[in-house]
Hints:
The protein has helices spanning 40-47, 89-96, 103-110, 125-139, 155-170, 182-188, 221-230, 250-261, 275-288, and strands spanning 2-11, 14-24, 29-34, 54-59, 74-77, 143-147, 174-178, 191-196, 199-205, 212-218, 235-239, 242-247, 265-272. It is of the alpha/beta class.
Amino acid sequence: MITTSKLTKSYRKKDVLKGVDLEAERGQIVGIFGANGSGKTTFLKCAAGLASFGGELLIDGRSPVKDCSVLKEVGVMIDVPSFYKDMTGRENLKFFCNDLSSAEQYIKILGVEDFIDKRVRTYSAGMRQKLGILTACVKGKKLVLLDEPFNGLDVLSLDKADELLDTCRKSGACLILTSHMLEHSGALCDRYYLLKDGKVFKNEDLEKFGKRLYRVEMKDADCADAIVRKFESNVCDKSAKTFEVAFENEDERLKFLNAILGCDFLSVKETTDTVEGKYRIMERKDEAR
Length: 289
């Protein structure tokens, strides 16, 4: 559905994207995560045809630079949603979207019936955020690009937004979102990309997540090294006397637990593998350099 190869972007001689390779298919939600300034929003702007770029970016096999008609079924919400304030939410929806066939269904799912026919100037920030998500999803029959879509939403609104994005996914759209809410977004996505200084640090299918993860602190560095060597393929992170290991099956996990029982350790903490955990590991490795 959308692929990029060696995608680059510079602003005033500063490289923001440095050869990003990304792939997302229809019927998927793909997350792009990273720190402020890592290039997340810039990537979405390139995909939406709002910024020039180097390298290759194709939507349904077509370049939005050479064939802008491919953007007709691309829904976009980047930065703070902006609408005509003296028009109602519904009027804005009609103005920005070519095909309103899914509008009523999506209005009900997102729960915006109470204010969709009121003027946008009366909306709170959360209401405008919902209208931004709604507009992008109604317009984006093929591709939906969402920049920090969960900002300003309360818990109940988050649930409704999740249901709407899942409905779009099931309808066959491809959704790409950025977010700082890694735990929440990671649970929603099928795949994620971690950006670091304009480069893809890691990408992975989220169906592989949920592994049993152990963070172990040993008293002796030599003993820690011995355990790490024995379970090298399972090690996610290591620094001095502390390391993290992840296991997919019960046999591997039990072998590890039996091995550390014979060692002198300070603590063993069990959790599950998450996008947020991957992000923290990425930052720790960068700090250690």
